[in-house]
Fold this protein.
Amino acid sequence: MAPAGFRPLRIAGYAALVLWSAVVLFPLYWVAITSFKTPSQVNGGPYYLPFVDFMPSLHAWVYLLVDLRNDTLRPFFNSFVVALCSTVLAVLAGAMAAYGLSRFRYRVHLGSIGLFLLALGLAAVAVVQAGVHWPVAAAAALAFFFLAVRALAPRMRRSVGNQDILFWLISQRILPPVVVVIPVYLMFQQLNMLDTLPALVVTYATVNLPIVVWIMYDFFNALPRDLEESAAMDGASRMVIFLTVALPLARAGLAAVFLLVWILSWNEYLLALFLSTADSQTMPLLVAAQNATRGPQWWYMSALIVLMIVPVIALAMLLMRFIRRGFLVGAVKG
Amino acid sequence: MNAAGPPPAGRWSLWADRNAGSIFLLPAAVVVLAFSLFPLLASFYLSLHRFKFVSGGFELRHVGWLNYKKLLFGSQQYHFLGTAGEWHAAFTFVVVAAAAALIFCLYRAARRGVGAAGIVGRVLAAAALLVLLLLFLRIIVTGVPGTLATTLVYVFAGGALQFAIGLGLALLCTSGLRGGNFFRVVFFLPLMVTPVGIAYAFRMLSDMSKGPFAPLWKFFGGENFSWAADPWQARMVVIIGDSWQWIPFIFIIMLAAIENVDNEQREAARMDGADAWQVFAHVTWPAVMPAAATVVLIRAIEAFKIIDLPNILTNGGPGIATESMALHAFAAWRTLDLGGSAAVAYLLLVVSVVLSISFFNLVVAPSRRLR
Amino acid sequence: MRIAMRNVNKWFGANHVVNHVNLEAEEGEFVILLGPSGCGKTTILRLIAGLEQCDEGQIIIGERDVTALPPKFRDLAMVFQSYALYPHKTVADNIAFPLALRRVPAGERRQAAHEAAAQVKIADLLERYPRQLSGGQRQRVALARAIVRRPAAFLMDEPLSNLDARLRSHMRAELKNIQKRLGITTVYVTHDQIEAMTLGDRVVVLNQGEVSQVGPPGEIYGNPRTLFVADFVGSPPMNQVRGRVRQGVFYAGDSKVAVDAADCEHAVLGVRTEDVAPAAAADGDFAGVIYASELLGDCTLVTCQTGDTLLALKTDKNFAGGIGEPFGVRLNRDRLFLFDANHGRRIDNNARRAGKP
Ligand SMILES: Nc1ncnc2c1ncn2[C@@H]1O[C@H](COP(=O)(O)OP(=O)(O)OP(=O)(O)O)[C@@H](O)[C@H]1O
Ligand SMILES: [Mg+2]
């Protein structure tokens, strides 16, 4: 498919690339210039070129950053904290799981899975039917589970292995957030954690964990084992090997996964809508909030969208040289 | 030279090394169990109940499968499944032909010996495909689509469009044109924008009186016309917004996959006299097929969850024309019909699991086995 | 420290890879594991290292039973065939890594890394990354990383196999020198004859997971206990003539040789090339024609065909016989080995006299 030599094909190729660049850039351009328009310029529009057919004004930016200041910066800060913490958490837990799955052999007895579900069911029945306090029920169920596993483990035969666990972890991504969001909402209500940042952090980390496992599993699998065995001989513990040998070697994948997960949590809207009301409001909520009773405030909204893109672009530039390779390995093998 | 000696084999560090496997898996397992498994079961429980606020809390009344029945056969059927249109004679022909083809495929699979689980899975997948076909004919072609059909349109039509454009751009960027690096960075940008922002941006862009294309509409004499009032055009706008965001994702992965293909293979094919199309069909495509299958799967999984765009761009309208299943569940939640919301969400889960796993087993896994 | 394997067994699925292996390496000894590809050398090394678990048997280091201990606690240093250098660390950091794991202060660490590097003559490469080094240099870095601390023992898995012939012989001498200077027990895996002969205090010959023979290199060469060892050790390989033994005479085709061995219907007569001498076609032990003649440099290797067996011998480098010319050979009667072709064990009486190795 190399039109490189043939003239008309090459021109068509460039035309397509330029056309798509326009498709990509024009909406961004429009958002950017709208953030410098006054309400009357927006409503009287359309105006295309700053300084040529309208006079740009900083009023939206001044309003957001000076007049409102904390009401803008706090959601920004919230988003930043949530994205950073949840991404670090997801990447760490996910990379650990992926590493474990690529290096150790696991056998989880079907029997203990059954026992776990049984314990969960008993606890649920106890809470719903008998009105037992839920922490009591949870503790009792856990205790039941561990005792039963200890007692019955030698009798269990069938078990699931690494590939099943991997599939289970990855398949969590199929779960639509709307399926889990109501129980999660009730759960955080019980824990008195509604409208707090930790609630968002933990939820986002869970939702994005499968992506990390998916991509990192292939990365770790592709690494030569010699290096890690050599480190083990030299006296490194498993955790030290993971941190000082495996992670640095897989940094390309880590960078790509980090960026992807960051983008997903930084931009997330639905879960935040459920789990935060005021104190832990994040940027996407703030953007949506500009669609006020007075109608959409396009100028503020646009400024906020621009404000949201900037940190992501900065992060992407920081990690960009790793990215292309990183995305591939996860995609090709899996 | 340093006589460092053996590290102390303390009980704790020995224990940690022996149980390293469990320790590595534990955080992820706990997190998933707590925040996925429990809510999943709770949600199912909720879907069998009617939720009501009472003074000082809430009350759950068991209603059995009522919430599901309502969606599939009862008062909410129009909303979820849609309204079936007339039956054309041609449809019968299409359905019979499709059923025959599926049965033939099943027969061939059985001959190849795919095992009991494989047969059951294939029968389920075939049944799902037939149901989809019926849905497509009666609801999408002649009837009024509900949220299920709309979601499937987003997944299939949107996915196909995104894959075609994403792959095309990736091929263009690897075909030796100059400036490839610049275009790569530019094409990646939409992925970074929050879906909420994209929804509002496309609302501005598609505004027919004050948006940037308003003069164009005027020129064509369409100023009195509104896309938001036409179901299919409204869906188109949602798909366009969704595609604008997700084409970069497909683009970037296909780009990497194509670049990973051994260039010598391509050159060898060209030496053997293959033209550009043949090189693509016989060398590049087989090599990138596993990546393509995987990226389509990822995209489909994410597309089933689409909610931000229709919610903000069209608010599900006109009527329920652009409402996805996720949005349906969200709307039910907003009216405090928690049981109904959970039921919709659960049906969404079932549909996406069946289709994703079928796709994985029938397309993604075989494509990998070939390598 | 002393290393011992007691009756160790290891299966990979149904594949019995290590079969009742007993092995001792005394304090400061240089022990070679020699055997053809796939015979389980690497597996044995990895069992000692703790990178694989024994299915049966015990492994003892010093006085400690380490059978169930993870590698980290065994205090061994291993040089991998691939060197296993950390690509993201400089040479200095690579060498100092074992010390960093033991929380040695940075200053001491740098000092020790420098000394270890100096021992293997790479002190000027400390700031480079592994990708900026040649194969021989990388190999030295791996060696330096092993000697930077005093481990209980060194384990080396064909460390020289990636090097060219010259560098290999140079590194061989260096390795031997360092090992003797440090006096650290070493277990060394190779399938290279010359390495085994020159480096080892003792050689362990392995065949399909079993120990065939253990002994000093000279004994392995000069008194092989089985046909396998005789065949595998030595280059060019030992000459083998099939025949039968009846009442102290070995018969093969028309030829016969007096031997000191028990009767055997399917016997193999083995004789090293240097124990075969040319003779007049009439009064040699075997008569035949010249099959091939190769100039090796310091001598000529002549292959003589008698019946359907080939016999090789070394003669003067100016040897000028043409292919097809008649040729006779005489065997050195004191240096004949007789094996039972069925189980491969020695049946001549010299074997018993030499005692059990
Ligand atoms: N992880 C493993 N799983 C299954 N079989 C294995 C594994 N590692 C080695 N084997 C098998 O065990 C046998 C011995 O392998 P090993 O690596 O010890 O041989 P080796 O003597 O080191 O050979 P070489 O000289 O080629 O390195 C071989 O048949 C090999 O196929
Ligand atoms: Mg080996």
Remarks:
- Residues C 41-42, 157 surround magnesium ion (ligand 2) (CB under 6 Å).
- The two ends of chain B are 50 Å apart (CA to CA).
